[in-house]
Design a protein that fits this description.
The chain is an alpha+beta fold and about 190 residues long. The protein contains 9 helices and 4 strands, in the order H-H-H-E-E-H-H-H-H-E-E-H-H. Strands 1-2 form a two-stranded antiparallel sheet. The protein has a two-stranded antiparallel ribbon with strand order 3-4. A hairpin with a 7-residue loop joins strand 3 and strand 4. Helix 5 packs across helix 7. It is globular, with a radius of gyration of 21 Å.
């Protein structure tokens, strides 16, 4: 680190160029500072940004990231004209199953849903919301799936403990039940 740079400005520069949330450890290593110095720099940066300007510091997906403040959202949307990519009901169902029951195999997902889920899992893999997290110690060594950092980022979660609590289901009730007409879909 060059002596002329202060720690909070250095952290801000790294967060500005980071394409995903940066951990305190990664920032510490990149800047040659201790974890304590980086945490202090993050605190100073957060206070400075909250007082002025369009950006603020957010803790997300186990790290830190710069984000625009909510009051600038409409102007940014008008400028970027983002294409909303909504998740279909079947994709949300599979994603919820993976999020709450991970790690699990494709067969386990199919068993919970009662329908084949390969299209949904493939789509979620392409969107980087789920990922392969290992292989089950069972015949055939099936792939185990879990949520990704992108999942945490997209749903603005720091970690999985921030998922909403599931309501207790009755013993004979499936985890997720859909109306009969919704179960038959061309998306599956």
């Amino acid at each position: 680190m060059l002596p002329a740079m202060n720690a909070s400005d250095s952290v801000e520069a790294l967060l500005f160029v980071a394409d995903s949330p940066a951990t305190v450890e990664n920032l510490s290593q990149a800047l040659g500072l201790t974890v304590g110095q980086v945490e202090q720099a993050l605190e100073v940066l957060g206070e400075r940004l909250s007082g002025q300007g369009p950006l603020h510091l957010v803790k997300l997906a186990g790290g830190y990231q710069l984000a625009t403040k909510a009051e600038y959202g409409q102007a940014i949307a008008n400028f970027l004209k983002p294409q909303r990519q909504r998740l279909s009901r079947s994709l949300m169902e599979v994603l919820a199953i993976v999020a709450y029951r991970q790690p699990l195999t494709m067969a386990e997902i199919d068993q919970i849903r009662g329908v084949q889920s390969d299209y949904s899992v493939k789509s979620l893999l392409e969107r980087r919301l789920v990922q392969e997290v290992g292989r089950k110690h069972a015949p055939g060594r099936p792939v185990l799936y879990g949520t990704s950092q992108q999942f945490l980022h997209q749903f603005k979660l720091n970690d999985l403990s921030q998922l909403p609590e599931l309501e207790a289901a009755e013993p004979q009730t499936p985890l997720l039940s859909l109306p009969v007409e919704a179960e038959v879909s061309s998306e599956d």
